[in-house]
Amino acid sequence: MFLSVCPLLIPKLRAQNQVLKKGVFDEQASSMSLKEQVKQREQSLRKVEQEMDSLTFRNQQLAKRVELLQEELAASEAKGKKTKQSQNVFDEDLRKKIQENEQLHIKFYEADEQHRQQEALLKARLEELEREREQHLAVVSSLTSKYMDTIERLQNDKARLEVRSQTLEREARDCRVRTEECQQQLRRCQSELDRQLKQSSSVIQEKLKARDVAGQALVFLQDLVAALLNFHSYTEQRVHIYPLDSSIEPISPLNQKFSQYLHENAAFVRPLEDGLVQLHQSITEDTVTVLETVGKLKDFAGHFTAYSHFLKKILPYQLKSLEEECGASLCTSSLTSKNQELQSDIKRITSPTGFSYCGLNPSLLPVSVEMSKHYSQKASLEQELPTVTQKLRTTNECLLASLGSLTNSTGKIATFFSNNLDFFTSSTGYGPRGGAGGINPLQAESMLGNKKRACEYMQAIRKTRPESVPYTESLMNRRVLTSSTESREGLTQQVVASQEKIARLEQEKEHWLLEAQLGGVRLEKESQRIQELEAQLSSAQGGGSPALTSLEDGDIGMLTTTPTNEEVGDGDFREKLIKAHYMARVGELTTQLQISDSKAVNFHAECRALAKRLAIAEKSRETLAEEVKLANQNITRLQDELATTKRSYEDQLSMMSDHLCVMNETLSKQREEIDTLKLGSKRSSGKLLLVKKQKQKNI
């Protein structure tokens, strides 16, 4: 059912995936446009804030100027020495400043109101977009979880199908083992012909290398290890099935212990293959290979000895297990005799001269053949028992296959040792150049090693060194490059901040210069006034009472001369004030220019940051496109695998259906034969009864 639904689900998932991708891309585009709008609004907001700051600063200057003028006006009114003309000038200037201040307040209020309205609109728009984004993200997360569940289910189905395919592969392997049994005679003939060819060609025998021999031994040992692993595993499986099924009732403690030991067989069998692989890898063309120089041979011999001890350890449990099978209620005498023959075969294999010398003992191959034959006869007898199960039959077939493979492997190993016995027993002599005596193989090994190291050293000396930058200098250059790359943005920000600080300090400098000029003007006025008072005081003290009368009489003249001097001083003061006003205006223009420069630098930094973000977004888009491509490739691959597994399963189901049809036909034939036999037996019994009745009547 799942196989029929999968092709329908995949187009739907693809269509939904395309819709989801399109929605995600649209949301990303809308979010990017909104971010751009927010940035523009922020830039306009910063511009308005800067204008507002400049207006505030100008307002403060004007307020200070008004306060100064008011103080001077109050001082002039208190003393009563200011003329009407100067008062009018101050009033006119004050009125202009008040009007200018009022206009600035109006502009500031309008700009503030406009900024608040824009900010409220942008906040409302931003909240609405955030809600839409959350809704879209919720939809995306739900669809993603749904697709992840679907993908996980498909992966689980794929794993289940892979397990099924592995079981079918194992069955195919078993079938290949059976075919190898059928081709065993052909292989024996081929091995005999190879042996005769090796015996006849002495030149080839002299040029055989130890690595080739080790490679052949590795291939044979790998077959032997596979056969031993299968034999021990299927023996463990049989212990749990017969004579008692562990799934129905517990097995005996003896079989439990035997099963536990058999479960540990891989720890003793696998090191055989690993040790021989290491031995094969240690043999190279540059080394002198004899029994004394092969160091890994000792490790392999240790692993082989450990496996021999393992066989001796499980031997009594195996014999007792066979005795327990003989003691079963359904065990016949023929089955007991086969078990006894198997016991003798197992004893002969695990004897000190048996498996431990599998290559040199010529009687091991017949023993393994007899053991396979006896076990085959035992399995055929067990199949005739009424309580035999399908699980036991399958296990017996697997055991027979593993025994056949084991017999084949032992035959190959025996042939291998017999063919290479001369090579193993031959002695090779090594001697110095021009000398008659020989040296030890270990010395030859060390000589070859020293020669190899000397050649490598001479090649290293003759090799010219390429020109390169010193390591310390390259490290310093790398640090400088990394630090400059990392701190470029920080330095840009520091430059912008420094320029803003310089502009602020320039404004403060202009302010304090104006204050200093005003203070100087006040000081000059006060000094002139003090000098005039001192002159009047000295003249009053020198003239006496007539001077007083003359002063009283000349009040009008003094009043006419004093305003003339004050008018001259007021004109100078007015010129100085106008000059200070223009200087302040120049300072304002300078600050505005500096602010515009800082804004330009800031905008440049923002543009660079946006360019970097755009490059990062392009890279992320490329990576996402590659991921989507890989995902599509994986989907197509999974579809192909699903199609292949579907075809294989259909073929297997058709084969199984054909097999079931054949089995049903055979069962129907057997039932018909049984029915005919029953009818024949009934007829014969009826005839016998009739004959007996006739005899009784005759009597």
Structure description:
The chain has 699 residues and is an all-alpha fold. Among the domains are: 147 residues; 177 residues; 112 residues. Helix content is 87%, strand content 0%. It is built from 15 helices and no strands. Helix 7 runs antiparallel to helix 8. About 7% of the residues have low confidence. It comes from Esox lucius (Northern pike). It is found in: Early endosome. This is Protein phosphatase 1 regulatory subunit 21.
- The rounded Rg comes to 56 Å
| Secondary structural class | mainly alpha
| Helix proportion | over 70%
Q: Shape from CA axes?
A: elongated
Uncertain parts: 202-207, 356-361, 429-439, 544-568
Q: Main β-sheet, in a few words?
A: none
Strand content: under 5%
Note the gap between the termini: 76 Å
InterPro entries: PPP1R21, PPP1R21_C, PPP1R21_N, PPP1R21_six_helix
Domain Protein phosphatase 1 regulatory subunit 21 N-terminal: 8-94
Protein name: Protein phosphatase 1 regulatory subunit 21
GO cellular component, one term: membrane
